[in-house]
Amino acid sequence: MSTILLDRSAIRSLINMSEVINVVEEAFKAWAEGKANMPPKAYLTVERGDFRAMPAALPGFAGVKWVNSHPFNRSHSLPAVMAVLICNDPETGFPLAVMDGTEITYCRTGAIAAIASKYLARRNSNTLGIVGAGCQAYTQIIAHAELFELTSINAFDIATENMDKLISSLPEYPIRKCSLEEAVSSDIVCTLTPSREPIIKRRWVADGTHINAVGADGAGKEELEPSILRDAMVVVDEVVQASHGGEINMPISKGLFTVDEIYATLAEVLTGKKKGRTDSKAITVFDSTGVAIQDLAVAKLIFGKAQERGGYPVLGLV
Ligand SMILES: NC(=O)c1ccc[n+]([C@@H]2O[C@H](COP(=O)([O-])OP(=O)(O)OC[C@H]3O[C@@H](n4cnc5c(N)ncnc54)[C@H](O)[C@@H]3O)[C@@H](O)[C@H]2O)c1
């Protein structure tokens, strides 16, 4: 037996968004049913950013993602977020694969936001707002376009060149540059910045809006005015993680929001334990911090496809 090595180009050639959406949704359901095991992320903070170790076990597949978040990496011509996945057989511990986790992170982050939108946004949503046109923006658009008939994608970024790159890289989607306020007036809004202070004002958020708050995934980060959370149905991916590092972390630390005000976890909504959107006028917020079962579910899918296709480099680790 050998360990398969899958680099970024291999992952790109094997990955497909509609399959990613399916396996990520199934993994959340398995987790809700006690069929997945996932301890909290371990954080390692360094001067310019942080690292996270994200372990999880799904039926037949286990592993860990080692991922960083370095918001100032553009000056080094590097992405802010880069990741490697080590995948093991849970029966024996055998290392099945070492794979690029950066592309998988992009895809699973887009997928989980689109899944949240499927349950929390208005069914007839056809405009998508993108706040922050960096690396995560691409898969938010691709994943939402899998599930919604998007007539307009309204993108804002403080860096015009990032918006221009997004628009020229995805010519098949109806993306247009707009102001921050216009982006927030979309039916579904994805916030994708490393901001450490609220940039989305409560007064810009219309009744019926669904917001995927994705950018805040570490302590001290926040993108939404806390009054948005007070007026919204707030769904989180993982309560402890969201409380310490998600969109709700700063409002909680300032006494402006409490854990008791969380409406549900996404797994509770996906399994029908809690209802998704029931009122077309409600404001809904999905606080996404990113959980390891998302990554492992996609890694399992990719590993299966790589085994079928064959011909990838291997490591003789054991
Ligand atoms: N929740 C999750 O699962 C998850 C997963 C991956 C990344 N993230 C987080 O998402 C954020 C974005 O990640 P990325 O990889 O796209 O980073 P990136 O550096 O590629 O992109 C960030 C973009 O935000 C823009 N921006 C910064 N401040 C802004 C502001 N005030 N208004 C508008 N635009 C602004 C930047 O110009 C840049 O284009 C980071 O905070 C990252 O840690 C979360």
Question: What structural category arises from helix and sheet content?
Answer: alpha/beta
Cofactors and ligands present?
nicotinamide-adenine-dinucleotide
Instruction: Indicate the CATH topology of the largest domain.
Output: Rossmann fold
What is the percent of helical residues?
25-40%
Numbering strands along the chain, what is their spatial order in the largest sheet?
A: 9-8-7-10-12-16-14-15
The count of DSSP E runs of length 2 or more, i.e. the number of strands, is 17
Total helical segments:
11
Q: First CA to last CA: what distance?
A: 8 Å
Q: Name the average pLDDT.
A: 96
Order of helices and strands: EHHEEEEEHEHEHEHEEEEHEHHEHEHE
Q: Return the CATH class of the largest domain.
A: Alpha Beta
Q: Give the low-pLDDT segments.
A: none
Q: Which homologous superfamily in CATH is the superfamily of the largest domain?
A: NAD(P)-binding Rossmann-like Domain
Task: Report strand %.
Answer: 25-35%
Query: What shape does the CA trace take?
Result: globular
Sheet having the most strands: 8 strands, parallel
Q: Give the assembly state of these chains.
A: single chain
**CATH architecture name of the largest domain:** 3-Layer(aba) Sandwich
Q: What is the CA-atom radius of gyration, in angstroms?
A: 19 Å
Tally the structural domains: 2
